[in-house]
Amino acid sequence: MRWDDWYPRYLDIAKRLNLDSAADREATTLLTELLEPIDPRPMLNRLSETINGKDVIICGAGPSLEKHLKSFFSSTDHKDYVIVAADGAVSVILELGLHCDIVVTDLDGNIEHIMRAKDNGALLIVHAHGDNIERVRTVVPDLGTILGSTQVEPTDRAFLWGGFTDGDRACHIVCEYSPRRIVLAGMDFGATVGKWSKPGHENHFPASERKRIKLEIAEGLMTTLLRTTRVDCLFLT
Fold first, then answer.
1. CA distance 120 to 212
2. What angle do CA 199, 204, 207 make, to 5 degrees?
3. 177: closest CA among 4, 87, 56?
4. Domain range spanning residue 120?
5. What angle (nearest 5°) sits at the alpha carbon of residue 33, between those of residues 138 and 90?
6. What is the pLDDT of residues 154-205, one digit of tens each?
């Protein structure tokens, strides 16, 4: 995603949510500094090789995720799919005993599960924004070799793929590397948030007004993305 193309969308999102752009840039600077010793090129190559020409299932952390995965993989071998988790969705993937190839996260999900997925071979893409500066500061040094992402001007360690929430950002990342086909699971844009989105929830819970706006933004970005990229897509319902 070119910054010039993304910037107008970011301005609209920032206006709708009253985002602190200076804080977004502060978070990006911090993440860049933390990842400075890590050469991202081997991971970018791995990311491309993992996705290019493959069938990919992208897992959002919506309430329908567990049902979608059980139903889809009851008739399909999960080994035939690259599995991408949007943040808290990694918890469901691990619980079901599935492999996880890529985790896209702003560190809102269960950190233990995210680290377990990485230990099992998943590639982590960690996003920095104004609301997760302290998590970036405290968690990223323990994650080892990871890729960074941003929603403001990119750096040589924090890349701009587009997308705003973990789910639609995962879609932007996957579509960047020419998958053969994508399947969208657990991508719910309704008034209920999946219990896996944040640790400590035993049940799905109502979305706040701010969360509903975020989901509207995510749905709009994904709709535009899928229309313009023309990637073969199955949206599980």
1. 33
2. 95
3. 56
4. 3-235
5. 50
6. 999 999 999 999 999 999 999 999 999 999 999 999 999 999 998 889 999 9
Each residue's pLDDT tens digit, 63-114: 999 999 999 999 999 999 999 999 999 999 999 999 999 999 999 999 999 9
- What is the distance between the alpha carbons of residues 110 and 196, in angstroms, rounded to a whole number? 8
Q: Which amino acid would we find at residue 66?
A: E
Strands 205-206 and 192-193: antiparallel
**Edge-to-edge strands of the sheet including 123-128?**
158-159, 147-150, 123-128, 102-105, 82-86, 55-59, 181-185, 233-235
Q: What is the CATH number of the domain that holds 209?
A: 3.90.1480
Tell me the C-alpha distance between 212 and 207, whole Å. 6
pLDDT in tens, 113-163: 999 999 999 999 999 999 999 999 999 999 999 999 999 999 999 999 999
CB atoms within 10 A of CB 203: 8
Tokens 């990871």 belong to: 146
User: Number of structural domains, the chain?
Assistant: 1
Separation CA 72–CA 67 (nearest Å): 8
Closest CA to 40 of 115, 149, 131: 149
